[in-house]
Amino acid sequence: xxxxxxxxxxxxxxxxxxxxxxxxxxxxxxxxxxxxxxxxxxxxxxxxxxxxxxxxxxxxxxxxxxxxxxxxxxxxxxxxxxxxxxxxxxxxxxxxxxxxxxxxxx
Length: 106
Hints:
By secondary structure, this protein is an alpha+beta fold.
């Protein structure tokens, strides 16, 4: 029984570490400012938005990390925004952005 509990605890720990690597920006990420349009890139089985990206005029795509400020952009599909945030890379090699602040362009 103890052995099984240790195994389960280890699996939970490894899963947590893997999840953090997808959500936390890469160490040493640089603070950047950019402008771009918000696009929804993923939904769950109940059609709720689970991920958005911001695409700049130059075609660079940044996956917005879903923290409190980032989730606000889930309601801004199609809007052009000015963003200040911390750039990083996720485990899949995609550019990510932890949003510090944003402004909707008129």
